[in-house]
Every structure is written in structure tokens, then in C-alpha cells.
Amino acid sequence: MTNRTMANSMTHKNTAKRPVALTLGVVCMLALVLFPWAAGAEGMSGLMNLTGHWAGLASIVVFLLGYSLVIAEETLHLRKSKPMMVAAGLIWVLVALAYNAQGETHAAEAAVRHNLLEFAELFLFLLAAMTYINSMDERGIFGSLRAWLVSRGFSLRAIFWVTGVLSFVISPIADNLTTALLMSTVVMAVGGARHGFVAVACINIVVASNAGGAFSPFGDITTLMVWQKSMVQFQEFFVLFLPSVVNWIIPAAILSLTIPDEHPDPLDEHPQLLDGAWVVVGLFIATIIMAVSFHQFLHLPPVIGMMTGLGVLKMYAYFLKSRDKFFPSPQADDIGESAMHDDVVPDTRPDSEQPPEFNVFKALQRAEWDTLMFFYGVILCIGGLGAFGYLLVGSQFMYGDLGPTTANILVGVLSAIVDNIPVMFAVLSVLPEMDHGQWLLVTLTAGVGGSMLSVGSAAGVAVMGQARGIYTFMAHLKWSWAIALGYAAAIAVHFWVNEAAFG
């Protein structure tokens, strides 16, 4: 709380300028990329070409304006889901108008239903995963881990490496966003007023979280999308482990040289693990196994396994709430038998001291609804641009003219500027012809490319909010060169260790 209070009292002049400049850069870049595609699309065959139609051009303007408001979220205090949801609706109105003018009265409806199905699978999967993560947090799992770290008396350099390693190890299971938020609270608690250490440690956490999430279907939204599309099988993600390690370890080694070998005073924290905490962890692991098994062996969507696991969690919550009624403790029996005596003292502890009741619906309420609705907006916006033909033309330009290797490396760079989710969804929407090694490459680059800028990943944006005024866009940009070295090295290692995957 001290760090947050200090941060809120700092000037916001630099942070006010940053989103505006970045917005202009993104708008210009996307305009240069998209409009040449539109100009060269007139000769396409086998597809209704609407890239030169007034509605198609208007949809690009709507998308750019909507995404500009997303990037300026910190300045405008306008949640990112709102402009994207409005943009999605407007783009599909334009799609319907353009298709109706061509005599295709039901084509837009069929296209938008396909996109809604894509979103529904992603939405329900993430909702189940977020509910489990929030349940573990409510039961005290993450608080206990944080308390253990801050009470060990580690040196600043040791905290830097421990939080980095844990970020890399936890993010494949708990996702990079949750992991980055957890570890950033540790470095803020230990670092205190050492803002230089906190900033560098937060950079390390963001890079490690994104790198760890890149070799697991559960570590990042983009890897989840690739897995659900069956472009990479569950066990095949793990061949990206070594490139992901290299992506993190190179900038981490460089950043560690700036960390003084000091020992801050250990903090005394004693959080309590609530009843059923480890059972919830076990159920989460079982749910992941179930989702993988449903997909691998039964050829069902993984979301079926996740939602079944969520149902099991809700049943377990019911058991915890009902256990005392069906199986009263000996102490409760004693009170019941002696209730007629005057010396029985009822439990008069205030409600604040009572152990909280395990309620899965409260964990469900704490899901990142803004993020989930943002995904809705992004998926439908990109789907609408695809309905006009822009994605197919873009795929022809990037994967045909530039080649898959250059295109997939560019995907990582674009992920740092625009965000990896719309970029990866665009790739998966057109499904360019690539061998298995290239699909692994784009999975890697989309997962770790966002680390080059603080705004390039959900983990970076979340930590900027957590350590406001300390971990900033400019603090991260100062070390982007080191992160870019790790990015290039990870690509080289992928071509080396996974050479057999390339056709």
C-alpha cells in the first residue's frame, strides 16, 4: 500500500504523453500495412472482393479509432473493452450493408455466427481457468507463496532471480498475467523505496512470464488459440521450452548486472491457508488433465473438459458449505448437548473474524470481465475485416511475398506494438500454408514478442498498473534492446533444436 500511495502522488506528465504518441504510431503503421493490401486486392478471384468498397475502408477506420482508444486507456481511464465492443458492432453493420448490396443477404449472418463460436470456446475456457485461479487466491495459496518469499531474507539479487524463475515456472499453468501480478507484489514489498530495483525486477518478471507461457497451451491466450485450432498438439508445445528459456535468460543476465547485492529487512507475514486450499489445487490440475484428455483422445473441444472441471469445483464448494451440517464436529455436538445449561457461552466473534465461506460464484465474479469482453471485441473486429477480404490479402502479402519465416518474425514485432491477440487471431483466421516448424515459430514469436514493449502483453500492462509510476513504458523501453537480443536468440535456437520440424 505504501508503494501504491507513493506512486499515485507522482506526476503523470510523461505517462500522459506516452499513449498519445504510441497511438499515432500504431495508427500510422496499421494504415501503411492495411491500405496497400486493399489497393492490390482488385484482381483476386474466388472471393467476393470488398476491400475497395467504401464499407471496407470505413471498417478499417473504425478499427483503428477503436484500437487507438484501447492504447490510450491509461490516459482516458476508459476500459479497453468498451471501444472494441462498439467497434465490433459497427464493423459488422458495415459488413451486412456491403453484403446485402451484393445480394448476399445471409452471408454476413453465417460469418458472424462462426466468429461467435470462436469466441464462445475461448470465453468459456478462460472463465473456468480464471475461476480456479481466483479460488486458489481466495483460499490463500498465492498469499502463502508471497509471504514465504518476502520473509526469507533473500538479497535483492536473489529476489530478482527467484521471482524470475518462479514466473517462468508458474506461468505455463496459472497464465502469464496472474503470475506477473503475483510476483510484482513480491518485488514491490521487498524493494520498498528502491524504485530502480523494482523497475528492473518487474521487467524481468514480465519477460519471464511471457516466455514461460509460450511453451504451454495454458500459458497465454495465443497458445490457447493455437491449441484449440489444433495447429499444434498439446505435447508439441514443449519443444519450445529451450527457446523460451533462452528468450528469458539472456535479458535476465544483462539486467541482473544492475542489481546491488544488498539484503533488505525481511518482512513478517503469516497468511492463513483456508480449508480446502490444496484440494482446489488438485482439482485444477485434474481439470487441466481432463481438458487435454478430452481433446487428445475423445476429439472434443478442450472447453468441455474445463467446464466439467468447473462443475466439479462448484460441487466441492457445496460440500465444504454443507459439511458441518451433515458431519458436525465433536465440539458442535458438545455445544448442542449442553445448550440448556446457563454456562454455555455462544460464539460471539464478529463476522470479520469468521473464516470466509467458500463461494465459487464470488470467484466467478472476480474474473477479468473487461479482458473477456475485450476478446469479444477483438475477435469480432478481426472477423469483420476478414469478411471484407483484408485478412486473405494480408496473408498473401506476408506469407506469399515476404515468406513464412519473415512473416512469423514480423508477427512477434507487431505483437509488441499492437498486442498479440488480434495478430494471432488474424493468422489463425486465414490459416496460411506452413509446415509444422513455422507454426511452432509463430506460436513462439507471438508469445514472447510482446515482451519488447511494456504495452505488448497483458502481463506488462497489468504490472504497469500494479507498480504505477515505477515500472513505466520508458523504464521498459530502456532495456528493449536486451529483450530483442533474447527474442532473436530464441528464434535461432528454435531453428537449431527443432530443425526436423521444418519441411
Description:
α6 runs parallel beside α14, α8 packs antiparallel against α9 and α12 runs antiparallel to α24. It is globular, with a radius of gyration of 25 Å. With 503 residues, the protein is mostly helical. The chain has 24 helices and no strands. The termini are far apart.
Structural class: mainly alpha
Uncertain stretches? 1-47, 330-349
- Gyration radius over CA: 25 Å
**What distance separates the N and C termini?**
54 Å
- Taken from the alpha-carbon principal axes, the silhouette is globular
Tell me roughly what share of residues is in helical segments: over 70%
Largest sheet: none
Could you tell me the strand content as a percent range? under 5%
Query: Kindly state the mean pLDDT as a whole number?
Result: 81
Q: Compute the number of helices.
A: 24
Descriptors:
single chain, 503 residues, mainly alpha, disordered N terminus
Break the fold down into its secondary structure elements and pairings.
Blueprint: H1 2-8, H2 13-39, H3 54-71, H4 73-76, H5 81-101, H6 107-138, H7 141-150, H8 156-174, H9 176-191, H10 195-213, H11 221-228, H12 241-256, H13 277-297, H14 302-326, H15 330-337, H16 360-365, H17 369-388, H18 390-402, H19 404-418, H20 420-430, H21 436-448, H22 458-466, H23 473-477, H24 480-497
